[in-house]
Amino acid sequence: MGKADFLSPKAIGNRIKAKGLQKLRWYCQMCQKQCRDENGFKCHCMSESHQRQLLLASEDPNKFMDYFSDEFKRDFLELIRRRFGTKRVHNNIVYNEYISHREHVHMNSTQWETLTDFTKWLGREGLCKVDETPKGWYVQYIDRDPETIRRQEEEARKKKQELDDEERSARFIEEQVRKGRDGREPEAESVYTELKRESEEEKVAFSLGASSSLAGPSKSSSALSASALRVAAASSTKRKDSSSSSASRQEKKRKSALEEIIEMEERKQQQQQQQQQQLRTDHWLQPNIVVKVITKRLGEKYHNKKAVVTEVRDRYGAVVKMIQSGDKLKLDQNHVETVIPAPGKTVVIVNGAYRDAEAVLEGIDEKNFSATLTLTSGKHKGKRVDVAYEDFSKLS
Questions:
Q1: Please, which pLDDT band fits residue 224 given cuts at 50, 70 and 90?
Q2: Burial class (CB in 10 A: 0-12, 13-18, 19+), 192
Q3: Contact indicator for 274, 150 with CB cutoff of 8 Å
Q4: pLDDT at 202 over 60
Q5: Are 146 and 282 in contact (CB under 8 A)?
Q6: Read out DSSP for 124-157?
Q7: What residue ranges in the chain does DSSP mark as E strands?
Q8: Is residue 361 a contact partner of residue 342, using CB atoms and an 8 Å limit?
Q9: pLDDT tens-digit profile of 50-60?
């Protein structure tokens, strides 16, 4: 019988059936194949490809279980980060959205038996904040992305700087008010007397001092001259005080401006150091570099053996080819480490400010766990730099 036409009812029905999720008991995780019914699953289990896959899995079952567990954990956390961010959400809501994707990794092929066990494991590993309520378990993603941490530190620094500016201005205003109160002379208490004149020919004289008195023409003129002298002396002293205070204020302003310049220079240096630190990333794998396998899960056959990275997947995983046996493996960057060649060999800088640049190894500093490199590519060609062991590796 020939294959049904693309627009025939049977072909449309087949596509509709294949679009949704099927029963989990008819799914083969090793072959990643979903069967529609029990008969189809039975035929698949008797197939040659399934039997060959079972033989591969029986050699090292922990390897496949760890692989599926890592895939499940990575996809689950990626969904929380992208879909919910750092919000608190029920774990069952996340799981239902995760399994809605047809090509997801099933939990029965991982090291966790239930969703509750997986949620508790996320809390123990510090990947999420978990808490149990009468309604169930809730999870909250902990974002440790360097860019996010840098943004949070920048916001905290800006808030602290604004608070410091407000405190500085408030302190300055309080200091000015205090100086104004200290520099003002206390006012003398005025004594009020009744205005009387003994004779009509006598004149009434007013003195500018603290007290008023009735006297003749000579007394009033002397009192007026004395008060004028006191006013002139007071004005001269006030001028001197104001000139001295203005000079001291100018000196303070000069000092504060100098201090501000120093603070600006310190801020620039801190920003440069932060920028240099930001150039480092938590992933360093690159194609065509030599690495050493350090994990013991693959057995003694691959432990402490060198390999060449042929392909980088998702920044943190890589396909490597063993130098001795020629076998190809898919490993995480935590399972390998960089290789330091002999002096005079060519290396590639895999992290830091000179990332992706090729260089020649000049010497090794064992005390500081670093090496001196001479760059042979990029805009800094010919420059000698000191790079840590983990930031460069041998070029294949």
A1: very low
A2: exposed
A3: yes
A4: yes
A5: yes
A6: HHTSEEEEEETTEEEEEE----HHHHHHHHHHHH
A7: 27-28, 33-34, 88-90, 128-133, 136-141, 290-293, 306-313, 317-322, 328-332, 336-338, 346-349, 358-365, 370-375, 384-388, 392-394
A8: yes
A9: 877 777 777 77
Do 214 and 204 form a contact (C-beta atoms < 8 A)? yes
Give me 189's structure tokens.
């208490």
Confidence of residue 90 (pLDDT cuts 50, 70, 90): very high
Using the structure block, give the residue that is written with the tokens 């529609």. Answer: 36
Instruction: Calculate mean pLDDT across residues 350-359.
Output: 87
| Alpha-carbon span 193 to 309, nearest angstrom | 107
Report how far residue 170's alpha carbon sits from residue 233's, in angstroms, rounded to the nearest whole number: 35
Tokens of 44: 């698949």
More confident position, 53 or 199: 53
Compute, in degrees rounded to 10, the torsion defined by CA atoms 330, 331, 332, 337. Answer: -140
Q: What are φ and ψ of residue 395, in 5° steps?
A: -85, 135
**Residue 36 · residue 24 · CB < 8 Å:** no
Calpha distance 355→385 (Å, rounded): 12
Q: What is the CA radius of gyration of the chain?
A: 42
The pTM score is 0.34
Residues 6+ apart with CB under 8 A from 286: 309, 312, 348, 350, 356, 393
User: How does DSSP classify residue 82?
Assistant: I
Question: How far apart (Å, rounded) are the C-alpha atoms in residues 363 and 281?
Answer: 25
Residue 296 DSSP SS3: coil
CA 323 to chain centre: 38
Q: Can you give 110-127 as a three-state secondary structure string?
A: CCCCCHHHHHHHHHHHCC
Give the strand pairing for 370-375 and 328-332.
Answer: unpaired
Contact 285, 315 (CB under 8 A): yes
Task: Check pLDDT > 90 for residue 360.
Answer: yes
Q: Decide: residue 302, CB within 10 A, 0-12 exposed, 13-18 middle, 19+ buried.
A: buried
Output the average pLDDT for the chain: 78
Res 227 pLDDT > 80:
no
What is the H or E stretch that residue 232 is in?
A: helix 217-278
